[in-house]
Design a protein that fits this description.
Order of helices and strands: EEEEEEEEHEEEEEEEEEEEEEE
Structural class: mainly beta
Shape: globular
Strand order of the largest sheet: 13-10-15-20-17-18
Largest sheet: 6 strands, mixed
Number of helices: 1
Oligomer: single chain
Strand content: over 45%
Helix content: under 10%
């Protein structure tokens, strides 16, 4: 490939990518979100990526069912941008499809999205321009819509959003992209490094007897993830369309790109619970929960 046609990989002077924050927003709130380059360490490589608000993934937005917020986006990235609010039922003009529902946001430009949340569940946001480049470079984030009905979900002790992704690293850099179009067909390419919440190895804590709700989303462009949690029990309670009518215990959850799943995890014994991506050939280790003594409080 002609590298003169590739995006820059220089990290000089870039801010370091931060860990994603949880942003609680209420009806009528306004939130500013900036797209801009960051530097991030992935394994032994320090690479140039893109972040929403300086983090990879972007901020995890928590909102209430029935609320309405405004998200003001400024694009200081490498290419034109939009933000698509994946799965939300909202006004068409704020859906983030360039040339159909809005004009692209040029570098240095802004756009304000008015978002409504009629349905509870898990959603996510990402670009709808050059997804092969911008999404792999780190532009994705989650949205949790809390239900108005307190009995909508089973009771749990706490909840956590989990993004599953991969990125292609070559010679200590993210493999180059062409400016003229996707490097590969369709949405993108397989990566050789897997990421959970933007990191090469997930590290979490839990208490024996605790039930934790995991909001899972596959943000990869191409890879199908088969998610499992060895050393704990998983119950599938929801997915792309919200709560499942019939819950079921599962050993693993298969997620195609963009798919979501909601699983309640019971950590029965102290020790360690390993996150895995399972394939017919092998199980890839994605990190772990360290499980301590018995939980002290209910949800």
């Amino acid at each position: 490939m002609d590298r003169q046609d590739a995006f820059t990989t220089d990290t000089t002077g870039l801010p370091e990518a931060s860990s994603p924050s949880v942003v609680r927003l209420y009806d009528g709130d306004s939130f500013d979100m900036r797209i801009h380059p960051v530097r991030k360490r992935i394994g032994d490589a320090e690479v140039r990526m893109l972040g929403y608000g300086g983090s990879i993934p972007g901020p995890a937005l928590h909102v209430d069912q029935g609320s309405e917020i405004t998200v003001n986006v400024r694009n200081d990235g490498d290419v034109e941008a939009t933000v698509h609010w994946h799965g939300l039922r909202l006004e068409n003009r704020y859906d983030g499809v360039p040339g159909e529902t809005q004009d692209p946001i040029p570098p240095g430009g802004t756009f304000s999205y008015r978002l409504r949340f009629p349905d509870p569940g898990l959603y996510w946001y990402h670009p709808h321009i050059r997804e092969d480049f911008a999404q792999e470079m780190g532009l994705y984030g989650t949205i949790v819509v809390e239900p108005t009905d307190p009995s909508y979900w089973p009771l749990v002790n706490r909840q956590l959003t989990v993004t599953l992704d991969d990125v292609l690293i070559e010679d200590g850099r993210i493999a180059p992209f062409r400016r003229s179009g996707p490097t590969f067909t369709a949405m993108g390419r397989f990566g050789n490094v897997m990421l959970v919440n933007g990191e090469t190895s997930f590290s979490g804590e839990a208490a024996a007897g605790e039930v934790v709700r995991l909001y899972l989303v596959n943000t990869a462009n191409t890879r199908i993830f088969n998610f499992a949690l060895r050393g704990a029990r998983m119950k599938l309670v929801g997915g792309d369309s919200g709560r499942h009518e019939r819950e079921e215990f599962v050993h693993e959850v298969l997620l195609a790109p963009s798919e979501r799943a909601v699983v309640d995890v019971l950590f029965e014994e102290p020790g360690e619970a390993r996150l895995e991506h399972r394939t017919p050939e092998r199980a890839y280790d994605l990190g772990s929960f360290a499980v301590s003594g018995a939980a002290t409080a209910d949800a």
